[in-house]
Amino acid sequence: MRYPERVTVVEVGPRDGLQNEAVQVPTADKVAFIDRLSAAGLPVIEVSAFVSPKWIPRLADATEVFAGIAPRPGIRYSALVPNLAGLERAITAGVREVAIFAAASEGFSLRNINKTIDASLEEYRRVCGRALEAGLRVRAYLSTAFGCPFDGAIAPDRVASLSAALIAMGAFEVAVSDTIGIAHPGQVAVVLDAVSAQAPLSLVALHFHDTRGTALANVLAALDAGVATFDAAAGGLGGCPYAPGAAGNLATEDLIYMLDGLGIETGVRLGQVLAASRFIEPLVGHALPSRYVQAARAAAPAAPPSTPPADRRSSN
């Protein structure tokens, strides 16, 4: 095994996690959640998305969230933007790093953003040009890189060529994404081998969902290939509207616990990520799927009763 000495964890819970939750988390609570994630030392936090509230109402308060958070030195705070209009809103809000999102399958691209892959790339070239002109960094997602709910299997060479195209237009990094949580470790190695023939793996991140329970195994396969950046969501927040029953993103706690055990540096404080997840859990209205969160809950001592138990002796 030739694992990297240090890994960058990109926290996507506030955006990719909360956008797929069934409830609307109040703006002030989103801000408090992000500030807790900052306190945990996460180096990159994807805060929100500047998209149409019609399509993603959960993130309609992106401007207010960015205005409310307390940025910490050394932490990058980013936002998703679908087009030039979203980019201009992000620039006005003071965002310094944005992300674009292409797809590796036509079916997903049409349903997700109502554009063909080629049309989306044309739009993103304009977005990258304007963002770089304004001094912003641009990250790119490549969705459905391991399989599509509409088109099925995706050729690794297609993932490679699209990743290279996104880098060529100005993206500093491409997050090759398992949108529906279908990837397995053998597939990860094959896809990364194809991608590495067209783009350096130092410019590649991986974004796994844990729908089939393979996310951590996929991370191990990617570490062995030399990838050193992974997306994760506190508590395993999120899911995918095109994968019914999906468990959500790879949980940040689960990832950090494994990386800590392997002796890989992240700079992230696991206990404080757990505290952030415990804060957001009651606000989303369901137990979080993170195995680490579940284990911590099971290990916690039961709370004492608020009043002494009634005397059970009969008064007769």
Which labels suit this protein?
316 residues, TIM Barrel, single chain, alpha/beta, eight-stranded parallel β-barrel, 14% strand, 8 strands
Task: Describe the protein's architecture and organization.
The protein has 12 helices and 8 strands. Helix 8 (185-196) links the parallel strand 6 (173-178) and strand 7 (204-208). The protein has helices at residues 13-17, 27-39, 62-68, 84-92, 106-113, 117-133, 156-168, 185-196, 215-225, 252-261, 270-284, 291-299, and strands spanning 8-11, 44-49, 76-80, 97-103, 137-143, 173-178, 204-208, 229-232. With 316 residues, it is an alpha/beta fold. Helix 8 packs parallel to helix 9 (215-225). It has an 8-stranded parallel barrel, surrounded by 8 helices. Helices cover 41% and strands 14% of the residues. The chain starts with 7 loop residues before the first strand and ends in a 17-residue tail after the last helix. The longest helix is centred in the middle third of the chain and has 17 residues, at 117-133. It is globular and about 55 Å long. It has a single domain (8-299), classed as Aldolase class I (TIM Barrel), CATH 3.20.20.70.
